[in-house]
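Hey,
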Amino acid sequence: MQAIPVTILTGFLGAGKTTLLNRILTEQHGQRIAVIENEFGEAGIDQELLVEQTEDEVVVMNNGCICCTVRSDLVRILGDLARRREAGELDFTRAIIETTGLADPLPVAQTFFMEESIREAYNLDAIITVVDAKHAMGQLDEHREAREQAGFADRILLSKTDLAEEADTAVLIARLQAINPRAPISRVQFGVTELADILDINGFNLDDILQVEPKFLAAGHHHHHHDDIGSFVYRSATPFIYERLEAVFDELIGRFGKDLLRYKGILNIQGDERRLVFQGVQAVAGGTPGAPWRADEPRESVLVFIGRNLPREVFYGVLAMCHPDENPQATES
């Protein structure tokens, strides 16, 4: 069966995640979605909306969606859902996982790299972060988790903009762009949010990474908030030698793994006609061959790093050693 696309929905307490999920689980949108709710959500799914409880953790909604509660083991419930889908017991075409407001989305994202059975059954489509426009500045100041949730996002949904002053919202958007320049920011009202805003955006597959422009990166240097999370882009028109790149990434992950929140890129590998789609979360990374390079496009490698106080000069230096014109022994330094 085709891999099930998964969206991870994160955001700080009170941002509006559960409101959005309740809407998905009740609206007649014609899609069959498994919504996996962390038990510690701010407000559970409204029990009056449930139709059929198939077992303790899985509930089928009146619009064909499924709602599950994760009490302990995400891997177990994902595996169970996939098996039941294959057996024809459950009918769904995608999954959305809600993390708790204080949760680090890292372990949830890592599940899709580390567990082979999960990697085969599911495809991580994107991490979506909901940000409360009225309260986010204080949350970003005070809570590492709020900054990490913004840094992780493939797309940011800005809620409650009607409750915030427009000038304050503009400052918040600039700050979010400095933390994570790659994530598009959409203003949303959860009564009318389009499902297209959160589904099938291929954020984690990086199909669009060649459009990455570090236009907001400079803002990070002069930002008066001194956020510890930021990002930078490494580009090169010269191909990488795969073995050197592998050795360098082992070194970088060993040194900076816990602060290396997300890294992803499209890579031009010497001797390979296909682009390599590369991505990772902290110390867990993987690469998959992508489409062949077209004759009319530049074979440019683009790598985006998002992390906490990362020394970009170190990254630039060791990555530069992975190209053919450098001494192969240089990567050992």
